[in-house]
Amino acid sequence: MEQDTVRNRIFIIGNGFDLAHKLPTSYKDFLRWFLSKVIAEVRSDGIHESPLIQISYIASNGNFEPKGLDDSIDWFTYYSNKKSYAEITKQKIKILQNKIYSVPYISELFDNIFDKINWVDIENEYFKLLLDYNKDDVSSKTTSRERIEQLNEEFQYLRDQLIEYLESEIQYPKMDKSFKGIFKSGNYENQLFLTFNYTKMLLPYYIYLFEESSKFTQMIHIHGALSPSSTKTSDYNGIKDYEQNVPIIEEKKLHIDSKRNLTFDTKKFEEIKQLDLSQIEGWNDVSDHLINLRQNYAIEGEPIFGLGDEHHSELAILKDDENLTELYRFSKGHLYFQNNNYRNLKTYINSAEYDIEILGHSCGLSDRTLFKEIFENDNCKNIKVYWYYNKETYENDFFNKTIELSRHFDNPQDLRDKLEPFNSRGKIPSIDDEFSSY
Length: 438
Prior knowledge:
Elements: E1 8-13, H1 15-20, H2 27-45, E2 47-49, E3 53-57, H3 72-79, H4 85-98, E4 101-106, H5 108-112, H6 119-133, H7 144-169, H8 177-184, E5 190-195, H9 203-212, E6 216-221, H10 239-254, H11 266-273, H12 286-294, H13 324-327, H14 332-335, H15 341-351, E7 354-359, H16 368-375, E8 380-385, E9 389-390, E10 395-396, H17 398-406, H18 412-418
Helix pairs in contact: 3-4, 6-7, 9-10, 10-12
């Protein structure tokens, strides 16, 4: 898009960005890891009990496991080309139950999300159950509040398992030159990475742009991020080194403007790039400085996972509900108050006109509250969507994304005025053919 005036730019980064770098961050990857962990625990201890599922071992003919039933990864690989993952998983549990395992309990939430593909679907399923459990059920032995509390316990456990998975399994690759080109392109002096991912895949690009580009870039993990200590030492050269550079970058930012990046001074920027890093306070003890700077997640925030559609019609009538606290336990809109990320974003979008480029985000309803504020803001002038091409179906997902985007606009004309038409060169770079969605 040709610009008459210089604007800011916001990159909206979703899980498709991580998948494009071949990080195993899909829901399928997580579920396979979780089931493997569960089976390993049953093999070792004879039982697994969690809010999501209970499995226990029953001795039979001296065999610990029926022939052909290896861990869930091997089992999944064997059947992956024959049935859907939901059918595979449910069939395996049925086999376990009929053989030497007892499966007395599977939560409704866990049962319902077996056939889901996207993380947005998981959050939406939680929301559906939340509204359903809040209704009176005379046939139930528990109250609506007890059902909601149980659901929240299950959802919290699911969230904690996801964080454990990402912290223990993710290893980061090198930066991709195509993404470097995208981030350096355009007549923008000030841009923002608004990432919805918990991972650190953006960190190398963030540091790269500061050192190699005249663009001034800031980054907001709007849904929080993995803690610095979680990064594995085997990760690409790197991510730990990049994390250690964050306080240096933040210190330099403080020299630019008291409004933190809302203005841009090219001369001052070049001076800052030449600063003697050894003279920056905290350089000699960068780890402590990093912890102090983030103020226990005050900058990136603890990972947020949950309900993000405060505009849903059924929520409007719940303001006086006696279960309101539990209903909003995982409300993103309320969890945003735990740090300054949301306020910093509001300051940014209200400070100047901006264009948006969407990389790997499904734009689903689970983030509707935030997206409406960004997309319908008068300062938002243009929206560009990078699309994914599925070689198996010979289709791209651009049309589907326009449908998802339309849900965040009250005025359809506003969407038509802002959304760039399909561009054959707008394919998201390097994305693996295995990943058909985000």
